[in-house]
Design goal:
The complex is a heterodimer of chains A (236) and B (280). Chain A is an alpha/beta fold and 236 residues long. Helix content of chain A is 36%, strand content 22%. Chain A has eight helices and nine strands. In chain A, the strands form two sheets. Chain A has a six-stranded mixed sheet with strand order 5-6-7-3-8-9, sandwiched between helices. A three-stranded antiparallel sheet of chain A has the order 2-1-4, covered by helices on one side. The termini of chain A are far apart. With 280 residues, chain B is mostly helical. Chain B has a single domain, classed as ABC transporter involved in vitamin B12 uptake, BtuC (Orthogonal Bundle), CATH 1.10.3470.10. Helices cover 81% and strands 0% of the residues of chain B. In chain B, helix 4 runs antiparallel to helix 5, helix 7 runs antiparallel to helix 10 and helix 11 runs parallel beside helix 13. Chain B is globular. The chains are: A alpha/beta (236), B mainly alpha (280). Chains A and B meet through helix 2 and helix 4 of A and helix 8, helix 9 and helix 12 of B.
Chain lengths: 236, 280
């Protein structure tokens, strides 16, 4: 059974439809990149998957023991976080809150979980450091560790490399690919078609034209060819 | 000499009441202040206290014997409107606060002016706004009410501490992992309103913002984790309230303004400390 499937989904807000007739499935261990022009509805789709807003019609079903609360989420950074006084371990621990219910304090298991994930993301030595004093790449690793505390099965990443420099971008992509190899399903929104084609095993293109398939098929498709040429041309 | 004078003053129950209430209110307001400052709601204290001022005006016009019954619900309602409105409204947060603040102040004064039977209107308004003497006229019931509300605020804050942190730091992540951010924003709004209505007794409407903001930003200058900022903010606030009250009793200065002056001095010291720290 598929871990996540979107069935005939129509999305939008304020009653305005921006996407309709969306059908695709994600299986355990997949690496899906969602690409498309600005304003094509990438964020709306992601918010629907996370159950933060409801679709206009159609539905999202989950299997394999996945529930919306058990999805690890890496949002884009907000202005508030830039001067927020919080230590790395406080932030990573807050990822464990979804399994706590009404219990007010963390227990040993959750503290160990946070520690493990900090180690995995290579930020263990920063545990006592203040979040606002870290570099952009380190901050993303901290937020990834928090997302991992919330999930063992699926990560949804919203443009995880935006505002990172090229070298850090590559190590971020490698880190995400390694998590995928460990069996975690990745759904990533990306501007970067180059990286999407290189790292992902499925591409979902939304906008005026719709495409869902492997990167190889994407590059051979008409919409893929156009978008790829446009993006790589624009970045040169 | 000073101690003799103080021990003389402490024999009066109203002085002891003032200290109990002052310390409790400064503790509660500083706890919430950190969250409010970080959520960019620094000015909410001002806005809500003016809303409460408007409510007090209505209560006095209606000649209610216990005006808390009207003031508390109105202030809570305004807090909910302001904090829940958030991003999805046509009027943005700062403009909404300014509207409620100025509007309530103007209407409140207008009502008091038209309907008031008091001969000393300017004095009444002044003492509501600056709380000049009200902390020294507290009754035992006031003190007990304040004690109960403060304990409720403290318990709620401690129980929801981690969730309040998560919602303040990253609302969308909190929502995605099933923490109902709106529910916690509602709780924050209600406690904020409670604290502000309480604090009006201490420093008056105009100076409440200072109680909410100063300890929080002073602590944020020096400490780097959320927990240490909260603890330090509470400590600063209680220390400033104690010294402010002592000084105002000894020198006969207005209570609210003296406490805020202490808060400002602490803030100055924190700024200098953080500058020196950064240089080393």
């Amino acid at each position: 059974m598929a871990q996540l499937s979107c069935n005939n989904l129509s999305l939008g807000y304020d009653g305005k439809v921006i996407l309709k007739g969306l059908n695709f499935t994600v299986n355990k261990g997949d690496y899906l990149c969602i690409v498309g022009e600005n304003g094509s509805g990438k964020s709306t789709l992601m918010r629907t998957i996370l159950n933060l807003q409801s679709p206009i019609s159609g539905n999202v079903t989950m299997g394999d023991g996945l529930t919306p609360r058990k999805i690890g989420y890496l949002p884009q950074q907000t202005a508030i976080q830039k001067d927020f006084p919080a230590s790395v371990s406080e932030i990573v621990l807050s990822g464990c809150l979804n399994s706590m219910g009404l219990r007010p304090f963390y227990n040993k298991k959750e503290k160990n979980r946070a520690k493990e994930n900090m180690k995995k993301m290579g930020v263990e030595h920063l545990a006592k450091k203040c979040y606002r004093e870290l570099s952009g790449g380190q901050q993303q690793r901290v937020l990834l560790a928090r997302a991992l505390c919330a999930t063992g099965s699926m990560l949804v990443l919203d443009e995880p490399v935006a505002s990172l420099d090229p070298k850090v971008t590559i190590s971020m992509y490698t880190l995400i690919k390694n998590l995928n190899k460990e069996g975690i399903t990745i759904i990533m929104i990306s501007h970067d078609v180059n990286a999407a084609v290189k790292y992902a095993d499925h591409i979902l293109h939304i906008g005026e034209k719709f495409f869902f398939g492997s990167p190889k098929e994407y590059l051979e498709s008409e919409v893929g060819k156009m978008f790829y040429a446009f993006q790589t041309g624009a970045s040169k | 000499m000073i101690f003799e004078k103080l021990s003389l003053y402490f024999q009066y129950p109203f002085v002891r009441y003032a200290f109990i209430v002052g310390i409790l209110i400064s503790l509660c307001s500083s706890l919430l202040g950190v969250t409010l400052v970080l959520k960019r709601f620094s000015y909410i204290g001002d806005g809500l206290s003016h809303a409460a001022f408007g409510a007090i005006a209505i209560a006095s016009v209606l000649k209610l014997t216990n005006n808390m019954l009207l003031v508390l619900p109105i202030t809570v309602l305004c807090a909910i409107i302001l904090l829940r409105a958030g991003e999805n409204t046509k009027i943005k947060g700062d403009a909404a606060i300014a509207m409620i603040s100025v509007g309530a102040l103007a209407l409140g004064y207008l009502m008091m002016n038209i309907f008031s039977t008091s001969t000393n209107l300017a004095g009444d308004v002044c003492s509501t706004l600056f709380g000049s003497t009200s902390i020294l006229t507290l009754t035992k019931t006031d003190v007990i009410l304040c004690l109960i509300l403060s304990i409720v605020v403290l318990i709620v804050f401690v129980l929801f501490y981690h969730k309040i942190f998560a919602v303040t730091f990253d609302e969308s992540f909190a929502n995605a992992t099933g923490i109902k951010a709106n529910f916690y924003n509602l709780i924050i709004a209600i406690i904020t309103a409670l604290i502000i209505v309480l604090a009006m007794n201490l420093v008056g409407s105009l100076l409440i913002s200072a109680l909410v903001i100063f300890p929080a930003i002073s602590a944020m200058r020096i400490f780097k984790s959320f927990k240490s900022v909260i603890i330090c903010s509470a400590a600063f606030s209680v220390i400033c309230a104690t010294f402010g009250l002592l000084i105002s009793i000894l020198c006969g200065t207005p209570v609210g303004s003296t406490i805020v002056a202490c808060d400002i001095i602490v803030f100055g010291v924190c700024v200098i400390t953080s500058k020196i720290k950064a240089r080393n």
